[in-house]
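Input chain follows. Return structure tokens only.
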Amino acid sequence: MGTNEEMRKIQFTGKSSYIVSLPKQWITEMGLKQGDQVSVVRQGVSNLQIVPLKHHNKSVGTEEATIEIKSEDEDSTIVRKLISLYLLGFTIINVKSKVGRLKPSQRNAIKDAVKSILMGTEITADSVEGITIQVLINLFELSVDGALKRMLIIAKSMQNDALLAQEEANFELAKEVINSDDEVDRFSFYIMRQLKIAIQNEHMLNEMGIESPYHCLGYRLIVKNIERVGDHATDIAKDLLEYKKPIKKNVLEPINEMNVFTLSVLDEACLSLFKKDSNQAERTVQKTSEISKYEKKVQDSLKTLKDTEEIYRVRRMSENIRRISEYASDIAEIVLDVTIEKTLRKQ
């Protein structure tokens, strides 16, 4: 028994009431007295949570938060604060100026963040004095798995488009890839927010189809891995915009082959997650080691190149794509951890 654990007997009083006495020290620390109300919340199958009503109303997700902005605050600082409050699960966020008015650039940064970064938010009040943002999205409107699937689709298409842009010397397409990274981040922030809220409430965890708080950590790492796929696609797109010329077709062919293989193992890893299938996860981990034969083809193609700049670019591209196969392996290993834990529990 832990130091914070005390055994209490259930007693029967009156016609149909069961009562359990509460530890005196806890009552004192909470500043409670006879007649005060507590909220009793069922969590999962067997747990009950007792929360004093005066604390219950302060629970994250029901309250509003206010941030005060100084006139010298950078736009990026304001956006970071907004993201933090969004991730903490607040449903109303007020942004006010500490002294005087918000600057036009600060107001624009807040509006852009609402539009492009904070999923499910809307501006409900907007003036020079301040802006109020409300999170309207219902907790179960878009499941964690649903958001992950969309995030994966965008990251994969970014990767394919980045290589197509290289092939066609298509600068517009390269810019589109870079802009799409915001969309991947939107889903990432949304999932992080949902996990933060769920980890505090077992009932919500079950509603979301997540079996234990421990799994939230696994999901968090998986989200980060998919986010990085978008980052690598962005790197490949930026390479074209920086060097302003495409890679030779005969060298791009093995790079494309490597990319097709990598995205297929990423798909398989995520499928093992959605199906909670340990056999599929095991197969994926083993399959990712095959990346080396694709890397060798790329290395062989480099022998046809004279230009050191081009050799450097192709090596970086190959490195970016190899990393994605490592993320696929990481995701599959997380799935193995989660499914093994489940099997042990059943036994």
